[in-house]
Design brief:
215 residues, Glutaredoxin, binds glutathione, globular, alpha+beta, 4-stranded mixed sheet, Glutathione S-transferase Yfyf (Class Pi), Chain A, domain 2, 8 helices, 56% helix
Amino acid sequence: MIMKVYGATLSPMVRKVVVALEMKGLEYELDPVIPFHTPEGFEKISPLKRIPALEDGEVKLADSTIICEYLEDRYPDVALYPTDPVLKAKARWFEEYADTVLMKVTAEGLYFERVVKPLLGMETNEEKVQKNLRDNMPSTLQYMESVMPENGFLLGESLMMADIAIGSNFINAGYAGFDPDAAQYPLFAAYLQRVKAHPAFQLRMKEDAKFINKE
Ligand SMILES: N[C@@H](CCC(=O)N[C@@H](CS)C(=O)NCC(=O)O)C(=O)O
């Protein structure tokens, strides 16, 4: 049975799962469930009614990290987490940072306000966005710049889950009109270009453009 991913792929958390599936070469179908407008009974798959959720035969899972770790354990041929314990711990840290800090700074405080709210017929709170860009974004970008390699990706030569999680959030920041200044954050800006250039991200961004361009 083909795997099913629930969630609109413009969501950074859904994109994480879909890029992981693409990189692992796994077949899947999408059910583009929209946050806050979930179908009846969705809580049976995602108890908090959040996206993404995954159905793999009898297996029903919610939460992007739980789903990606499951995919890694069940379908290990293309590895997206390092096996070395120290590197694996670092990978988990970057993913946790993306799911918590970046989720607040690039998604809730920026993308949600400027892109999702208008789509839901709600008004953008631009004051909140400006406060977020002033109070939270600089320290986030400084941290990102401080951990960036000059070449390759966060944990080596290949794109892995840590990069997918971070890149996915900053793609949404870009859709909301914010990209890191390359003069101020040169390593991070160049890294983001490398992440976005990966075929799995290119594919997703091409799909995203169909919706983003409609707005
Ligand atoms: N930690 C969760 C966060 C999921 C999440 O908050 N998803 C958002 C969309 S990006 C959502 O469904 N929000 C609707 C809600 O909170 O009810 C994950 O990584 O999957």
